[in-house]
Amino acid sequence: xxxxxxxxxxxxxxxxxxxxxxxxxxxxxxxxxxxxxxxxxxxxxxxxxxxxxxxxxxxxxxxxxxxxxxxxxxxxxxxxxxxxxxxxxxxxxxxxxxxxxxxxxxxxxxxxxxxxxxxxxxxxxxxxxxxxxxxxxxxxxxxxxxxxxxxxxxxxxxxxxxxxxxxxxxxxxxxxxxxxxxxxxxxxxxxxxxxxxxxxxxxxxxxxxxxxxxxxxxxxxxxxxxxxxxxxxxxxxxxxxxxxxxxxxxxxxxxxxxxxxxxxxxxxxxxxxxxxxxxxxxxxxxxxxxxxxxxxxxxxxxxxxxxxxxxxxxxxxxxxxxxxxxxxxxxxxx
Length: 334
Hints:
Layout: H1 5-9, H2 22-37, H3 46-53, H4 56-66, H5 68-81, H6 86-109, H7 114-133, H8 138-169, H9 185-198, H10 205-220, H11 222-247, H12 253-256, H13 264-282, H14 285-302, H15 311-333
Helix pairs in contact: 2-5, 3-7, 4-8, 6-7, 6-11, 7-8, 7-10, 7-11, 8-9, 8-10, 8-13, 8-14, 9-11, 9-13, 10-11, 10-13, 14-15
């Protein structure tokens, strides 16, 4: 046995022993690692400080790419290696995800630093991803993967906008801004569009992902879904309140002279974000069609009924899982 991905996926790890079985221990080890990377509550504490200390480009890469490695790792390693225990453990993880959604949103409301507010919003949004993944159905998993794309676009754009403001004024304090829509109207329009995406307004990309996640998770765990749905309201609170405080109201005279509207270079790198926000919200079909075969194969691997106690039935089930895994990963590597 080598350490290649194909050989790892052929492993039939024993599920005998319940939560202390080899399969469960392997899952918990992978889950802990990738939950920190997502990050999922209560392993999220590193993220706000990392965003605040990072330059604008670093924050965009962290939000748009690196956090998604946590979700990728769960899809690629943790869940396929432990399909038998997933039906038992998934309700608990969905409850933790619902807590992460609400907790991250509440912390975002309390922030006075724009960048830290966006960072805590990432904790909330990535909670939706984990909620959808552990719904263990096609709707939820499709929404989770789509939401990873959405989060990279909307939050990446938010960090770029925060960087534009900071470059001009050298402060991220929300109270330092007021009424800037009168001075920099194009920036304000882009900010509002990205905000609509972040709060999942219908017609934007965020709505498609969150709607699919909540629909899929409701079929599996209605209570966790109801709690998570409050995050939609809280998300609107902290993002719209942010826009109200910095874009509207009475202008700060001392800030007005420092602010200039978006230049051609900034417009050039913000335009793809705005286009994708609208396109993925109005016409998600090309993306969902592309995801469908892989999601169906993934569900075939992880959505396995725990095997019967008879050894013959157990062996047949393990052979079936091994064949599904092999066909899935061979098809995806070709």
